[in-house]
Amino acid sequence: MEEKKLRSQEWFGRKGKDGFIYRAWMKNQGFPHHLFEGRPVIGICNTYSELTPCNAHFRELAEALKRGIWEAGGFPLEFPVMSLGECSIKPTAMLFRNLASMDVEESIRANPMDGVVLMCGCDKTTPSLVMGAASVNLPTIVVSGGPMLAGRFKGRKIGTSDLWRFAEEFKKGELSQEDFTAAEAAMARSQGHCAPMGTASTMAAMVESLGLALPDNATIPAADSRRKVLAHMSGIRIVEMVKEDLKMTDILTRKSFENAIMVNAALGGSTNFILHLLAIAGRIGVELNIDDFDKFSSHIPLIANVQPSGENFVEDLFYAGGLPAVMREVSSLLHLDTITANGKKLGENVLNAECWDRNLIGTLEKPFKPESGIAVLKGNLCPEGAVLKPSAATPSLLQHRGQAVVFEDIDDYKKRLDDPDLDVTPDSVLVLKNVGPRGYPGMPEVGNMQLPMKIIQQGVKDMVRISDGRMSGTGYGTVVLHVSPESAVGGNLALVQNGDWIQLDVPNRTLNLEVSDEELAKRRVSFQPLQLGYDRGYVNMFIQNVTQAHEGVDFDFLKGASGPEVKRDSH
Ligand code: FES
Ligand code: MG
């Protein structure tokens, strides 16, 4: 095959003044001249940050990557981009996913590089990087940071999902302050992102099933030396990908998106997956809609026995055979001819994968749970859709009729939740408004509301909860999320009143408010859109341009791609 002229040569290969300018300052780093004479330049897009603890080991990991790039004859150049730490960023990291993606897109396009490695870890650092890179469409490979080792506390293995249990036990006085604090250090005891199949590991699995990463990217623990081997091999591979001109559009096809949805169901992956995959599809130009998530996942059982839907951790899944072994179990349903980052077809990567532990990886005939995936609900409460994760829900609540207990926003919820006079029973349906993309703003992970104190005291563990917000990938419960349109833009969710009857029917995929159209129209007359008071800056831009949950919460103006070309020089 005839080799394409390297994009980086538009900078470094120039004669005269322009070449001088593009090379001279680079040489202050000690790079000899021959590096500029036609090697594939590989940009390493690094989300290292001490404020993103899940990605704090990325300097070291980048060194392994660079060794691979050098070995293959490439020229690695590392650059930082906005890094989003899920646990610290207020009001929610999701508010900044699109901003980070713009940083990534423009950093790649504007700079001399032929291929890109995306270093992703904590929840939003994967979608923001993949979205940004997809809008440029260079050869691109993802290296994830890997999951933490499972924590150990009082003789038990623990992970992020246990946080919700600890919080409840602490609230009930069953866990002392001292033990509660000790649990913090026991839970996050190693480098890496959250240990369960939360959103970070869901994203790492998403890139592997899409074909954007090498096999085993999803599960090798961060602390395992094989994570560095994977980085090294990804470094070698990206140089080859540049030579083959294997671009993101070659890998991200409609079929690979369908694969990712099916694999996510087999894993019991996070509901955040929906928003991020929709946004990525929008950037790469693949038609995907919210109904596809139900269509391609409802027939897939839960294969992986990993928290929060199961019992173990992503680390254990690696020891049992990793994602290739899970994909092998559902391979009769997957498109095996999609091309992946290692240049092979998906089928070649997974069909010979071995399973070492049937307690971790079930089969289609003997799955861990019969129902998994994402249920997409429709009805007058969510005409554009709402979602629920059946594998994390209580089976007896999947068909439920109850009366609404309404919280107008997050402050109202926090104020009244534990009020002894709150008119609530275990059969009530908790409704939280104004936590959607525009309403909060940024659609935070508050959808799995803690239950009211007086309900917890009755020993009740789950209730039906409905909101236009999201839920942490480590959360669980019978929780209806992503109600669209959201209450802040006047969706019917905004019109729910205390005592209204609500009918949830997951088997039939419906969610209805038992209030007549006439009555809803009457209530709509007095609906007042929320005044948020953000009249400047990024947050204002977010509110003006963000799309609804069923469209992926991307900015309307970011849909699509502008490609890698820049016509004008800087001098
Ligand atoms: Fe970073 Fe969970 S907080 S992955
Ligand atoms: Mg999260």
Automatic annotation (TrEMBL):
Residues covered by the Dihydroxy-acid/6-phosphogluconate dehydratase C-terminal domain: 360-552
A GO term, aspect molecular function: hydro-lyase activity
UniProt keyword annotation of Transmembrane helix present: no
Database matches in InterPro entries: Dihydro-acid_dehy_C, ILV_EDD_C, ILV_EDD_N, IlvD/EDD_N, Sugar_Degrad_Dehydratases
One Pfam family it belongs to: ILV_EDD_C
Keyword annotations of the record: Iron, Iron-sulfur, Lyase, Metal-binding
Keyword Metal-binding included in the entry's annotation: yes
Domain Dihydroxy-acid/6-phosphogluconate dehydratase N-terminal per the UniProt entry, residue ranges: 39-349
Protein family membership: Belongs to the IlvD/Edd family.
Protein name: Dihydroxy-acid dehydratase
